[in-house]
Design brief:
Blueprint: H1 2-18, H2 22-27, H3 30-49, H4 51-72, H5 74-121, H6 123-129, H7 132-144
Length: 145
């Protein structure tokens, strides 16, 4: 299933890429395209793997709360529910923080991949004009960020 989803996502991305105009291709950051194929597809697949849990978790929790209430009472069931809600809020906040860090990291990775891709594609030109140290410095600067 996961392989089929990945294949479909890569095919959709490829179809969109080949339909870009010449202007769009020159304006598109090649590092961003490489990053999309490598990293973002993995994130989408990972998110899809948790989809069944989104449906099952509330049902499992309701059943668990029912048995907790039978065993030790509604008061402690309410405490368990409150603790669960607290954990959900904390998880949501840390998820937002993680997303902001990944966004910043993604921008730097896109730039680094663009430089490396340009370096690989333009290797002959770079060697011909002696620009190796310039590109090496650019790659180091982005890596140090």
């Amino acid at each position: 299933m996961a392989i089929n989803v990945r294949r479909i996502l890569v095919a959709a991305l490829y179809d969109k890429t080949i339909r870009l105009s010449v202007k769009g291709m020159t304006e598109t950051n090649s590092g961003k395209l490489i990053s999309l194929i490598n990293g973002d597809l993995f994130q989408i697949e990972r998110g899809l793997s948790f989809a069944p849990l989104i449906v099952a978790a509330p049902i499992v929790n309701l059943i668990a709360y029912y048995y907790v209430s039978l065993r030790i009472g509604w008061k402690y069931t309410g405490i368990c529910f409150g603790f669960w809600m607290f954990l959900l809020i904390c998880q949501h906040q840390t998820g937002k923080l993680y997303k902001s860090y990944k966004f910043k990291e993604g921008k730097v990775n896109d730039e680094r991949l663009k430089i490396v891709n340009d370096l690989v594609l333009g290797c002959r030109t770079i060697k011909c004009y002696g620009w190796e140290t310039y590109y090496e410095k650019m790659a180091r600067d982005v890596r140090n960020e």
